[in-house]
């Protein structure tokens, strides 16, 4: 019985070896037969692996599955994925991996067969050997590394899809940028045209010619009469010196005559230092007698914005009696965003319109740009100056201001609609030949009028950038990137 059992085991082992040899001999014939029937073998007539349908989530393109189901992130039903070169690579990679595992299992089982399950293992090896032959990858198939490089370089979209999603492009060109800045400002007095009326001696106000705030005054108009004992004494000294000079005109004593003239000059300078005018001194000489009061005249044109003078009030040296403002020019204060600072410069032309007088444009210039940001509004304050000959512009009015700036030299520009801003970088899609689109990271500069923005780097003059549907192209690129990452992951494992 022992001999018969050993003989039976040897015979069984011999039969298995003979069966394996026969299968290996028949495999080429099966392969040739499969080349004519792509549905049976899973390959096409050209020898390429049949495409496998993949499934993805519309909200999460990084989710890729080989069977329909639900997204593990949001729970939405998976949708069929458009067949691409990455999908073909995935299918080829899966089948080749499965065939390689089957071949290794066949070689391993051959050396560790048990007599009790020899028939079942032989049956299983036959199926694996058939798959290994039929799923063999043709020579020259691009690897995952080359596919990744091609996907990173450009995105290929068929012409029908390009037309359906409405892709539009614009030419990268060199041109000077212009910028129109609109803001709101308020009018105020020109601080350079303020004047104060005071005296340099003590006295009392005897008469007021200007007694209303807001009264318009011209240069040389009388403001008030003031009585001052010091001023009376100064007039008496001047008249005495003036009479002495006249009396000593023909004197033989030259030294005495020069002394009288020196005293007259000193008395006159004292009156001039107290703001007594040349005309008033001439009247004093012609009259030959002093006046009890002296009239104070307006030093310039303006509007009385403050009146402190009152009839009978005692004044002291340096006390302000009037405060006047010349409104022939007026200031406007406005605020602009700090991003518009490169466009601003003193002397830049500005246009202003008043809400109560629409249609009339006032033209002025930027007078000063404040070198700090406003703490509350976090913007730049600018000061503009406008002529106001007819006094139509009044302090504390609100106005609409428009600044028109132009770049000093031409720069490379692209439409702002072509830029995809992610927060970390700015990307544009450059349209190439054959339906290819290449993503480019660009460095942006100043933003001009009509939606154009300066492209400091990333693109060249004459290239075409996508201005519409670039977000759909971006989603397509992200989808291909997700497929490629899955391919790389599977190749590593």
Question: How would you portray this structure in words?
Answer:
The protein has helices at 2-35, 38-41, 85-111, 118-134, 144-153, 159-165, 229-247, 254-273, 278-287, 470-492; strands at residues 55-56, 64-65, 79-80, 155-156, 168-171, 173-175, 178-188, 194-198, 203-208, 216-217, 222-227, 293-297, 302-307, 314-315, 320-325, 329-336, 349-354, 357-373, 380-387, 398-406, 411-415, 420-421, 426-431, 436-447, 452-457, 464-468. Mean pLDDT is 76; it is low at 1-12, 14-49 and 93-152. The strands form 6 sheets. Strands 4, 6, 21, 22, 23, 24 and 25 form a 7-stranded antiparallel β-sheet that branches. Strands 7-16-19-18-17-20 form a 6-stranded antiparallel beta barrel. A 4-stranded antiparallel β-sheet has the order 8-15-13-10, with no helix packed on it. The protein has 493 residues and is α+β, with helices and mostly antiparallel strands.
